[in-house]
Amino acid sequence: MTRAGQNGASASARRVFFDHGELKHVVLALIGEQPRHGYDIIRVIEQRTGGAYCPSPGVIYPTLSLLESLGHVRAAGADGPRNRYRVTADGRAFLADNKALVDQIFRRMQHVAAQASAPSAIVAAMDGLKAALHSARRPWSADEAKLVAAAIDVAAARIRGLATSSDNANQNHTHGEKVASMLQSEARVTTERASIYLQQLCKHFAHRLPVEFTPEQGQITFSVGTCRLAAESGLLTLRAEAEDESRLEQLQGVIEKHLLRFAFRDPPEIAWHAFGADPAT
């Protein structure tokens, strides 16, 4: 009998993919391909089913313990905090004896992957997100958790927007309209320390946000929007982009506050205006 998963979707997927005892064959076959740890097995199964099924650690790790007790795999040392498992001679013999069943299961997984709606690029991106969420060597603090949740919310909102607009005939045109609909503002700050301030801002936020920068250009991705920075002789240009007026004002406030903190000895004048408008008007 198949045990219920953490939610109905997981339980349903397990019934579709694996009859009683089949997951054991899949896990052993994957370890037979190369040494793997539990999270790697979870990731590969999700990839090979096109994202349609992702086994939980509560299913995979007991299966690994069972295979180890049967003598089919053995722990082969730690890969960071995780044990990697290798197939034994008994395990290879078991796979050889059950080759027809194993091949049938993998053909079924391949068929489901071909029918799955999530392209491989999206599945890989989801893997990257999960890896990032599990990369912290300590529990997330309350403030960090809020930032992570906000970043995921922004991504989800943009994905929903793309999904809604996908009904249009020209996807590239639709994407252009989406970008054009974003609110943008700009501030041109006169300062001889333009490159220094650009790098200070980017380095400060890089500890907790996605940041890319050179001495001349930078981009900081916040939960509420994006700030692009450009430094040239005597001028620092700040461009803020957000989905609505409230987020845009919040983004402007954050950038302005931190810039003034770095430039406290000689505070520059920071005046935001709609991007493309004449600052003098």
Main attributes?
TATA-Binding Protein, single chain, 8 strands, 3 domains, Arc Repressor Mutant, subunit A, 54% helix
Structural account:
- The structure is a single chain.
- By secondary structure, this protein is an alpha+beta fold.
- Helices cover 54% and strands 17% of the residues.
- The chain contains eleven helices and eight strands.
- It has helices at residues 8-17, 22-33, 38-48, 57-69, 89-97, 99-115, 120-133, 142-165, 171-181, 194-205, 245-262, and strands spanning 73-79, 82-87, 183-190, 211-213, 217-221, 225-232, 235-242, 272-274.
- The strands form two sheets. The chain has a six-stranded antiparallel β-sheet, covered by helices on one side. Strands 1-2 form a two-stranded antiparallel ribbon.
- The longest helix is centred in the middle third of the chain and has 24 residues, at 142-165.
- The protein starts with 7 loop residues before the first helix and ends in a 7-residue tail after the last strand.
